[in-house]
UniProtKB/TrEMBL annotation, chain A:
Gene3D superfamilies: P-loop containing nucleotide triphosphate hydrolases. This is Polar amino acid transport system ATP-binding protein. Residues 2-236 form the ABC transporter domain. Transmembrane segments: none annotated. The keyword ATP-binding applies.
UniProtKB/TrEMBL annotation, chain B:
Residues 44-265 form the Ionotropic glutamate receptor C-terminal domain. Residues 44-266 form the Solute-binding protein family 3/N-terminal domain. This is Polar amino acid transport system substrate-binding protein. It comes from Peribacillus deserti. Keywords: Lipoprotein, Palmitate, Signal. Residues 1-18 form the signal peptide. Pfam families: SBP_bac_3 (PF00497).
Automatic annotation (TrEMBL), chain C:
NCBIfam families: HEQRo_perm_3TM. Keywords: Amino-acid transport, Cell membrane, Membrane, Transmembrane, Transmembrane helix, Transport. This is Polar amino acid transport system permease protein. The lineage of its organism: Bacteria, Bacillati, Bacillota, Bacilli, Bacillales. Its main location: membrane.
């Protein structure tokens, strides 16, 4: 589904990603953990080209997105992204936030887009909030709307960039619950997070990143209980 | 203590007296050589102008030059005054004289009845008549032909008044500019069909800018002759001195020399003398 | 002090006509300047430095030289060069538009730059193109923030239109000066003009305030 080959990314002289190689299979839930500054968010943002890639290739369903011929907007329409700070559009209502891309990018007709949006809102438990502006929502509600917005494009892959880091502790659960449900439904997901419990429970595979490399990867049980690398051990001893 | 003060003050008085004495002495000498009339005190008077009216008064760098400047210097020398000429602009010129902050104004000012009610004028020093500046090949042959044409003028001049008499006051075809330069530029750039202004202005321009292919149209039947005078505040004592001086330089050839240097032609001195 | 209302009455029709032309000049300047300013502002924000350079030069030149100089250059130079004769109203509209566009471009740029980067990323991540993201997400939000500085610019533009009197565009100030030079009066013409300008700028700020309030409650 996603194939990352020899990916490198530099910001000026600062090389943030150094030779990343990873393959993600359909319906797999991959959780990326690591200390801050390890490059895990940059890695995620490279997958839908929010960052320009310095070297290497990323193939999504066989299409090389780093190729200049590829229509990146088409790729992005199939790759949903959820941000740490939600990035909802404050001048649009919840419903308008959700129907915008289906209307403008997929050219879905209005009634259909609206129906779909309402069913997604129901799924995340916010159907009564359809006509309010994002400013009146709590952090957890905002993030659930953001997930619904990404799902409205019917993506094949969902990327989550620390979706619970900006939330008050009591709201983390409601967002994780929605993500778990998605995983159960078979969505292919790449999740950058500090929620080790979520990684252990939902993840099919965990990648530990540090210093721009994937240091270690394994199924959650093995990675958390018997890490092989010193750096993994050091990190886990701090967060667990 | 008292004694010391007395010595000091008398010392100061002596020094001051000595200083005064020597100053008076040199001033007398300067006066003597300048005017030849001996003991008269030579006064410096402040004269104001609007130095944006070539060839009468305009700026060359930061120096005010032009016919009016040459004439004023000659007349003032004859009358026994030193002149400090200052560029203040057209409207402020009238304000300065009204409030008597300036002793006189010279700026190609036409002597007319309305102005005479508020100010005094010297006897006329220049004969002027409005003329029409048009492109070569224009069908404007007389003032009457200006009807239906766009005419550029300097705001507040007799040229404007003359055109308004023909076309109507504040007529839409009259374009009023801050100065004649802008009005002539409007003509050159085909934004106007003619400029009406003092003969000296338009003739000087046509002569100095042959490339622009302009010609001057006269119409002394329609446009009245005007006379320029030095303007004084009402009741000024300077008027008598300057009238005498002007009569003198008209007679002794000084005026003719200045005029010829500037315009290359001879002035009509008789007409100037007849007018009052 | 004697205040001659009779000469104001005499000039009232001209001042009225002049006011209408002042309004027309200002409106044209605002509309054209805003459209032009948007494009120049976007041009200056282009990532390619070589493509953005001309826009930067434009803004620098028009903000760095006096409007009066621009008015004279355009009236006696640019307009005659293109149409073979002067046209005071056209020259004024061009000068006001080009000048305002430089300031408005900066207002746009600042307004757009003030929108959080996450908004663009959010829109792009959904598959919207750069242009679509600008149109639906960035500009509507930026526009709200631009209203106060744009309002200031429009008020400056109304006042600056008085410079057109120098090239004899028959606007409000032109008639004020005509009146002043006919009667050698200061207070009547200029105070009248000042009051009319004040009314125009006040009306505009009231209009912009209500627009701002309406957008804020939306």
């Amino acid at each position: 589904m996603i194939k990352v080959q020899a990916l490198r990314k530099s910001f000026g002289a600062n090389e943030v990603l150094k030779d990343i190689n990873v393959t993600i299979k359909p319906q797999e839930v991959v959780v990326v953990i690591g200390p801050s500054g390890s490059g895990k968010s940059t890695f995620l943002r490279c997958i839908n080209l929010l960052e320009t890639i310095t070297a290497g290739h990323i193939l999504i369903e066989g299409k090389d997105i780093t190729d200049k011929q590829t229509d990146i907007n088409k790729i992005r329409a199939e790759v949903g992204m959820v941000f740490q700070h939600f990035n909802l559009f404050p001048h649009k209502t919840v419903l308008e936030n959700i129907v915008l891309a289906p209307l403008k990018v997929k050219k879905v007709d209005k009634d259909q887009a609206r129906e779909k949006a309402l069913s997604l809102l129901k799924k995340v438990g916010l159907e009564e909030k359809a006509n309010v502006y994002p400013d009146s929502l709590s952090g957890g509600q905002k993030q659930r709307v953001a997930i619904a917005r990404a799902l409205a494009m019917e993506p094949k892959i969902m990327l989550f960039d620390e979706p619970t880091s900006a939330l008050d502790p009591e709201m983390v659960g409601e967002v994780l619950e929605v993500m778990k449900q998605l995983a159960r439904e078979g969505m292919t997901m790449v999740v950058v997070t500090h929620e080790m419990g979520f990684a252990r429970e939902v993840g099919d595979r965990v990648l530990f990143m540090d210093g721009g490399y994937i240091v270690e990867e394994n199924i959650p049980k093995h990675l958390f209980e018997s890490p092989q690398q010193e750096r993994t051990k050091a990190f886990l001893s701090k967060v667990l | 203590m008292k004694k010391l003060a007395a010595i000091l003050s008398s010392f100061m008085m002596v020094t001051m007296l000595a200083a005064c004495g020597s100053e008076a002495g040199t001033e007398e000498k300067a006066n003597g050589s300048a005017t030849g009339s001996g003991g008269d005190e030579k006064k410096t008077i402040r004269v104001v102008t609007d130095a944006a009216y070539a060839p009468f008064e305009y700026l060359e760098g930061d120096k005010i030059v032009g016919f009016d400047v040459n004439f004023l210097n000659a007349a003032a020398k004859e009358a026994g005054y030193d002149v400090k000429l200052e560029h203040v602009g057209w409207d402020p010129l009238f304000v300065e004289l009204k409030s008597k902050r300036a002793a006189a104004g010279i700026s190609a000012i036409t002597i007319d009845e309305e102005r005479k009610q508020t100010y005094d004028f010297s006897s006329p020093y220049f004969l002027s008549i409005n003329k029409i500046l048009v492109p070569e090949g224009s069908d404007i042959k007389s003032a009457d032909d200006l009807k239906g044409k766009v005419v550029a003028v300097q705001s507040g001049t007799t040229g404007q008044a003359a055109v308004e008499k023909l076309l109507g006051k504040n007529h839409k075809d009259i374009k009023k500019f801050e100065n004649n330069n802008l009005a002539i530029m409007e003509l050159i750039n085909k934004g106007a069909d003619a400029v009406v202004a003092d003969n000296a202005v338009v003739e000087e321009y046509a002569k100095n800018n042959p490339k622009q292919k302009l010609k001057v149209v006269e119409d002394s039947d329609t446009f009245d002759a005007e006379f320029y005078g030095i303007m004084f505040p009402k009741g000024s004592e300077l008027k008598a001195d300057f009238d005498k001086a002007i009569a003198e330089i008209l007679d002794n050839g000084t005026y003719e020399k200045i005029y010829k240097e500037r315009f290359g032609t001879s002035p009509d001195i008789e007409k100037l003398k007849q007018a009052k | 002090m004697d205040f001659r209302f009779d000469i104001i009455m005499e000039y009232a029709p001209y001042l009225l006509k002049g006011t209408l032309i002042t309004i027309g000049l200002s409106l044209a300047g605002i509309v054209i300047g805003t459209i032009l300013g948007l494009f120049i502002g976007l041009g200056k924000m282009m990532r390619n430095k070589y493509l953005a350079f001309p826009f930067t030069v434009y803004i620098t030149v028009f903000r760095g030289t006096p409007l009066l100089v621009q008015v004279l250059l355009i009236h006696f130079g640019v307009v005659p060069f293109f149409i073979g004769e002067t046209h005071a109203v056209a020259a004024t509209i061009i000068a006001l538009s080009l000048n305002a566009a430089a300031y408005i471009a900066e207002i746009f740029r600042a307004g757009i730059a003030s929108i959080d980067r996450g908004q663009m990323e959010g829109a792009r991540s959904l598959g919207l193109s750069h242009v679509q993201s600008m149109r639906h997400i960035i500009l509507p939000q930026a526009f709200k923030r631009m209203i106060p500085p744009l309002g200031n610019e429009f008020i400056v533009l109304i006042k600056d239109s008085s410079l057109a009197s120098v090239i004899a565009a028959p606007e409000l100030m032109y008639w004020g000066r005509a009146m002043s030079s006919q009667y050698f009066r200061t207070w009547e013409p200029y105070l009248t003009a000042a009051v009319i300008y004040l009314i125009l700028t006040l009306l505009l700020s009231i209009l912009l305030h209500s627009l701002e309030r309406r957008l804020a409650t939306e």
